[in-house]
Structure formats: structure tokens, C-alpha cells
Amino acid sequence: MSKEYDIYASLPPFDVHNHHRKPTAQQQEYLSWELIEASTSGNHDQLIKAIQHRADLDCRYKGCTPLYYASKNGFTMLVRSLLSYGAHLETRNSKGRTALMIACSRGHIDTVHVLLHNGAKVNCTDHSGATPRHLALRNGHSAVVHLLDTQARMPITRTNAIDLRLKQLTK
């Protein structure tokens, strides 16, 4: 038997109706590592397995959450999953940056779109006073800047999101 099998076998399965069964501190530490590893490598199956065993969605490694790492790497599907299971959207790292800020600075437009659609704050600032727009501009991501400017003028609804994506694809 592998170590992973033993650990997961000892964990309570995910059950929305049973909030009493939670992982022990040692199990939670392992699950946190699984989430961080999945969010940095893009492993969706690993992420879902950890979530289903009640991993702390807002755990931290080097000051950053799984949502931050998934956004940093442009793993849009992981970002969607983390948000749908309840990860906090506006959690900040030690520099005061959010998942939206790192996605903008890296130019991951699909990830930025998902974060905005889920209510990420466009006008937030980090400890140095930079906004998501500043970070996108600084790194030459004009499409992200355009999306942020559009969001500032017109909040993204499902219909608006589809229209914006179609315009981007037809350019």
C-alpha cells in the first residue's frame, strides 16, 4: 500500500450534510500540501480529491493560498473549482496581492475573466499601491488591461462574459 492510499483511507469522506467529521491536524497538514502541490502543478484530480476530504481551501504555503498559486500559473479550471468549493477570493499574500493581481501580472486572461466573473475587486491595491491594472500594464498585457477597463465600466454578467469572450476570439 502506498502512503497516499493510507492517508486518504483514514480521512473522512466529503459529506455536505456532516460537518462534524473533520480531518485531524496531521491529516489537514497533508491535505494542505496536496492542495498546494495540485495548484502549482495543475493537477485537477489531486485538487478535487483533497477538497473532497475537507482540505482547508485557504491554507498557505510561503504566504500564498492554493487559489493564488492556481491563478499565478493560469490554471483556470483549478481556479473555477477552488471558487466553486468556497475558496476566499480576496485573500492576500505577504505583499498584499490577490489572485486577480497575480493573474493580471502574468497575463492569464481566461483566469482573470473567471476571477472577475466571481466578483474579484478590480480597484484593490497591494502594499506598494499597485492595482491589477497597473500590474497588467507593467508587464505588457494589453488584453488584460482592456478586460479590466471593460469590467470597471460594465460589471461582468454571464451574458456580458460570453459577448466579451466571443469578441476576443474573433479579433
Automatic annotation (TrEMBL):
Membrane-crossing residues? none
Q: Is Repeat tagged as a keyword?
A: yes
Entry keywords, A to Z: ANK repeat, Repeat
Repeat (ANK) residue spans along the chain:
62-94, 95-127
Q: Which Pfam families match?
A: Ank_2
Q: What is the protein name given in its UniProt record?
A: Uncharacterized protein
Give the source species: Thraustotheca clavata
